[in-house]
Automatic annotation (TrEMBL):
CDD domains per UniProt: OAT_like
Xref: Gene3D superfamilies: Aspartate Aminotransferase, domain 1 (3.90.1150.10), Type I PLP-dependent aspartate aminotransferase-like (Major domain) (3.40.640.10)
Similarity annotation: Belongs to the class-III pyridoxal-phosphate-dependent aminotransferase family.
Record-level GO cellular component terms: cytosol
Domain of life: Bacteria
GO molecular function (one): pyridoxal phosphate binding
This protein's UniProt keywords: Aminotransferase, Pyridoxal phosphate, Transferase
Keyword Transferase listed: yes
UniProt xrefs under InterPro entries: Aminotrans_3, Aminotrans_3_PPA_site, PyrdxlP-dep_Trfase, PyrdxlP-dep_Trfase_major, PyrdxlP-dep_Trfase_small
Signal peptide start and end residues: none
Identification of the protein by name: Aminotransferase class-III
Native source species: Sphaerobacter thermophilus (strain ATCC 49802 / DSM 20745 / KCCM 41009 / NCIMB 13125 / S 6022)
Length: 452
């Protein structure tokens, strides 16, 4: 299997792309020169472009195609619900069976008392929703000034204005005008670059101290919530020291500040447990998710809130004035239910843990090379950090265009990974085998040899 079933006119597609596509998160000038790489088909961990060249999708789309490509069951779920009832809202007290069943299923899966679910179409909308629910909760509790949001540098929470404000990667904001006020960015738990001269324990203590000092300075009565990814993804796969999350959660509890965990990448098996929070034994007040909930087959996101939060929201006799047209889209929810069934039946979280540990071990052999500074990850999300000088951890000169050159070298070898100016991020589908993992590692090793 796997040969392109249709024939495509790649040149014509590339011409039309250059003439009409405004690509997100892409170098628009370079695209005008080189054109896009056009993917036509997928099956399992593989993708085929319109010329029939095969790739291992070692980035699972955008960290989201957890069950792999080409799943007939998910296409069936889509078609069946589409024929039965493609759309009916969840506004005004309406609902559909798959939406209700998905909420009930999620309540059974999430730890603690995360029992109530609100749906969106993606990660940014989910984080907007989480932040607004936190503020609404405090407003209903008679504290309308508890509105600020604590976040971390290197965080990625999405690009809509509120989620963007929580995001800690300045390149996403710097040319887009003013952002909402009241978002405060703390130091990320990035031991390799911020823990210099400290043990991991001392590093965690310093981050806890920074949080305490920030709360003292701003006033706990002005802070609604702290938002964070259990493991930071797009900012650089920052795996915190084990003590970090329990210690942060304790401080927040003591100061009556809500914890929002962004499980958009870490949810639905990626880190080796069903949710990233289970790696650290913590339960937030509010959780946001997207991506892996449908493995990307259709857009869906959402938030879960604890019973404590819900009880406050449901207390007054008034309308909760928040929602999107597509909140609880029945087709998306039907796909999510089937997708979660696959993740459970095929034990994909356990596979991510096992193959991820193997793959991180194999990638760690690259640390022998003079330009590989750090290899980190958990489950099937990992990153190889490249440095110009291992002693000083100096970064490469961006003029060297390492990202672009590594992208070309890896694609030439038939693997799709995310090549940044000083790192390679890897996040394959959770069905990856050890053999496929070895193929990816080998292609990365050879690409590094070629470029550096
Ligand atoms: N939160 C995290 C942790 C993410 O990784 C992303 C996207 O990569 C988002 C939020 C935003 O999700 P979306 O692009 O679906 O809005």
């Amino acid at each position: 299997t796997g040969a392109a079933q249709e024939t495509w006119n790649t040149a014509d597609l590339v011409r039309k792309d250059k003439a009409h596509m405004l690509h997100p998160v892409s170098n628009l000038r370079q695209l005008q020169e080189y054109g896009p790489l056009v993917m036509a088909r997928g099956e399992g961990v593989y993708l085929w472009d319109t010329d029939g060249k095969r790739y291992i999708d070692a980035f699972a789309g955008l960290w989201n195609v957890n069950v792999g490509h080409g799943r007939r069951e998910l296409a069936d779920a889509m078609r069946e619900q589409g024929e039965r009832l493609a759309f009916s809202p969840t506004f005004f007290g309406l609902a559909t069976p798959p939406t209700i069943e998905l909420a009930a299923k999620l309540a059974s899966l999430f730890p603690g008392d995360l029992n109530y679910f609100n749906f969106t179409s993606g990660g940014a909308e989910s984080n907007e929703t989480a932040i607004k629910i936190a503020r609404y909760y405090w407003a209903l509790r008679g504290k309308p000034d508890k509105v600020k949001v604590l976040s971390r540098m290197m965080a990625y929470h999405g690009i809509a204005m509120g989620a963007l404000s929580a995001t800690g990667i300045p390149a996403y904001w710097q040319d887009f005008g003013p952002r909402p006020a009241g978002f405060i960015h703390l130091t990320p738990p990035y031991y390799y670059r911020h823990g210099e001269g400290m043990t991991e324990d001392e590093f965690v203590d310093s981050l806890v101290r920074e949080l305490e000092e920030t709360i003292q300075r701003e006033g706990a009565d002005t802070i609604a919530a702290f938002i964070g990814e259990p493991i930071q993804g797009a900012g650089g796969v920052v795996v915190p020291p084990d003590r970090y999350w329990p210690a942060i959660a304790e401080v927040l509890r003591r100061h009556d500040i809500l914890l929002i965990l962004d499980e958009v990448i870490t949810g639905f098996g990626r880190t080796g447990t069903l949710f990233g929070m289970q790696q650290y034994g913590i339960t937030p007040d509010i959780v946001s998710f997207a991506k892996g909930v449908t493995s990307g087959y259709v857009p869906l996101g959402g938030v879960g809130v604890s019973s404590k939060i819900f009880d406050v929201l449901a207390e007054p006799d008034r309308v909760f004035m928040h929602g999107f047209t597509y909140s609880g889209h029945p087709v998306a929810c039907a796909v999510a239910l089937r997708n979660i069934q696959i993740i459970e039946e095929e034990n994909l979280a356990a596979n991510a843990g096992e193959v991820g540990a193997y793959m991180i071990g194999e990638l760690s052999k690259l640390l022998e090379r003079p330009y590989v500074g750090n290899v980190r990850g958990k489950g099937l999300m990992m990153l190889v950090e490249l440095v110009a000088d291992k002693e000083t951890k100096a970064k490469f000169d961006p003029a060297q265009n390492l990202g672009g050159r590594l992208q070309a070298a890896t694609r030439k070898r038939g693997i799709i990974v995310r090549c940044n100016p000083d790192s390679i991020a890897i996040a394959p589908p959770l069905i990856l085998t050890k053999e496929e993992a070895s193929t990816v590692v080998e292609a990365i090793a050879d690409s590094l040899t070629e470029v550096l």
